[in-house]
Amino acid sequence: MNRRKWAAALSLVLLLILSACGSGDSPSPSGSSSAGTNQAAESEAAANIDEDNGKILIAYFTAAENSGEGVDAVTTASFSTINGTAVGRLRAIADMIAEHTGGELFSIRTSVVYPSDIGKLIDYAAQEQSEDARPELVSHIENLDDYDVIFVGYPNWWADLPQVLYSFFDEYDFTGKTIIPFNVHNGSGLSRTVQTIQELEPGGEVVEDPFTISERNVEDAAGEVDSWLDGLGY
Ligand SMILES: Cc1cc2nc3c(=O)[nH]c(=O)nc-3n(C[C@H](O)[C@H](O)[C@H](O)COP(=O)(O)O)c2cc1C
Question: Is 0.70 topped by the overall pTM?
Answer without folding.
Answer: yes
